């Protein structure tokens, strides 16, 4: 066995995860004969690009997003792109995130990002805002369970949190008097795809998350220790080279 390490910035991680989701067997099967629904989100923008083989401004595919407290939201242009729904590999613009669920069948794929992750427990947390109807995931969970859909959750390890997500959801639900419009969170389980799973899908290496953080553009970066055969390690290196230098979000807007 051989070993090496990789460092991925958040943007590089999103691209890596996007490449892996596009290569997942359940996704490829659903693209051939079923339905794939890709919810809006910054990581899912990479999923869309990798599946469709086209580039577009990532700001168009945002839903909720986090900005520094002193940053004006005006830096995000207003035009948006709706969720991409693919039926037998073709974009079906007649459907949206709600109507598409009425057509989905067992083993069709619903792809939704997350805001929090308990990696060891295999639990993701999705923020749903204030007093709405539970967001897109709230409307989808009954269909996902009842129709036996595959819930794929692309999420970077930067989203790992220290608290138990189930406890967080309870806290946000029961202690909301501190905020007139408090956030809510839904805890979900599904096929979680982080950088660890992404490198395994794309090269066969087994990874451990060994460190996080950085400076000078590497804020939020993750370090992975990868182990595998020499051939797998070499394939992982080539894969990492494909995402190295992926532009940060603001660099995409300002370029």
Characterize the overall form: globular
Per the CATH scheme, the topology name of the domain at 11-65 and 76-192 is Rossmann fold
Structural class of the helices, strands and pairings?
alpha/beta
Helix-strand pattern: EHHEHEEEEEHEHEEHEEHH
What's the CATH C level of the domain at 11-65 and 76-192?
Alpha Beta
* Rg, alpha carbons: 18 Å
What helical percentage do the residues reach? 25-40%
> Main sheet?
6 strands, mixed
| Weakly predicted, low-confidence segments | none
How many DSSP-defined strands?
A: 12
Number of helices: 8
| Percentage of residues in DSSP E strands | 15-25%
Across the major sheet, the strand order is 4-3-2-5-8-10
First CA to last CA: what distance?
42 Å
Give the CATH architecture of the domain at 11-65 and 76-192: 3-Layer(aba) Sandwich
Could you give a short description of this structure?
With 255 residues, this protein is an alpha/beta fold.
